[in-house]
Amino acid sequence: MSASTARFTDVPGDTRTARRLAGRPGPRPAKPRVQHKRAILIFVLPFGALFSLFYLVPIGYAIYESLLVIKREGTFGAATEVFGGLSQYVLVFQNGPFWQSVGRVLAFGAVQVPIMLGLALLFALLLDSPLVRGKKFFRLAFFVPYAVPGVIAAIMWGYLYSPNLSPFSAVTQNINFLSADLVLWAIANVVTWVYVGYNMLIIYSALLAIPTELYEAARLDGAGQLRIAWSVKIPLIMPAIVLTAIFSIIGTLQLLAEPQVFRSFSSAVTSTFTPNLTVYTTSSIPNVNLAAAFSVVLALATFVLSFTFLKFTQRKEAQ
Predict the structure, then answer these.
(1) Where is this region: Disordered (predicted)?
(2) How much is the average pLDDT of 91-114?
(3) Structural domain of 56
């Protein structure tokens, strides 16, 4: 031990000076936790306020309205809202057209969602392939339909399907796409055309995040482009595919704009064609309390279906 070190260590209470002279930094002063909590609160408060105002409050109000019923005093008496308990939910579960519409959109999603996501995955892989030229053009071309509002897209496709208005009358006069047997799948075509580019962009963004070293290692092992896509790319972007699938499931149960527009083109699309169309029609009667009960049940069904799908995919990945 040197003389200088011994001199300072012998002096009690002067350890901070000894550490500074010995080249060892002293302990940093503790940061005040109060300032950290205030900063977190400042950043979280705007989001929390907007989330509560536009999400939690409407949900709570819908649940509140679903527990009320309309009561009249006599035949022509004034209507008042009174607490009715779960009577509106009893009517929901007894409503046959509503559950038929739920089954209709589930069949719609079972066919349309895999086709749409399969096309989105294919287009994303093509854009990510080094063999494809003009990627900027194709990326824009695939995404442009999503920029078209859903109502405008439905009107455009409605005219294309119409036997009397379509420029492809040679086809539409022989095949009635607006008939009761085909109108659901005609709507599925519109939804697929609009949302393939949106889902493709999510999957393509996940592909861009994959390190190129993995592709180089696969090529050194003799893998071609197809093998790299199947064994390297698709497993690594599976979380993005699951995300788009969950978005698609939610969107399927919320189908509204396209069927509502197609009511002007086809008598096969009724006021209870989809669950959301049933809610809209019921609220227009007006029967806001029953429409609120429909909405709550539909929201719960959407949550259960999405959560079940997410847990199923997570269990498959764990295996």
Answers:
(1) 1-32
(2) 95
(3) 3-18+35-318
